[in-house]
Amino acid sequence: MKVILAIVQDKDSQQLQTHLIKGDFRATRLPSTGGFLKAGNSTFIIGVEDDKVDDALEVIKKTCHTRTQYVTSTFALPEAAGINDPVEVEVGGATCFILPVDKFVRF
Ligand code: 2BA
């Protein structure tokens, strides 16, 4: 068994939750905050059997989109103070970590 930690944009999280349920995947959705943009995102904890990992990743890939955001250059690079040009940052679709599970129990 594996656990997938998937960090996705808030805009995609409702749809991802729906698609995971439709695909018969069990998941927990946690509110989270990106360290760089300091904006809200969602982290999904998805426990899956080894042979279903690729299917779950496919659902995530299809549902979560890449978006461009603009932040002030000072925000991205403090040393750029005084320069007000916005900096383009591409966010998502999803950042996924796939971890082995030693043991899984439900009581
Ligand atoms: P944030 O940390 O808010 O990052 C949002 C986007 O800003 C990132 O998109 C990336 O394009 C950019 N970015 C992040 N750190 C940067 C830096 N030091 N310099 C320049 N640009 C930077 P994504 O890579 O798609 O990441 C989306 C969210 O996924 C992140 O939000 C964070 O919450 C999470 N994440 C990404 N990589 C991670 C990692 N290695 N460990 C833990 N969480 C991660």
TrEMBL record:
Coiled coil: none annotated. InterPro entries: CdAMP_rec, N-reg_PII-like_a/b, N-reg_PII/ATP_PRibTrfase_C. Pfam families: CdAMP_rec. This is Transcriptional regulator. It comes from Companilactobacillus allii.
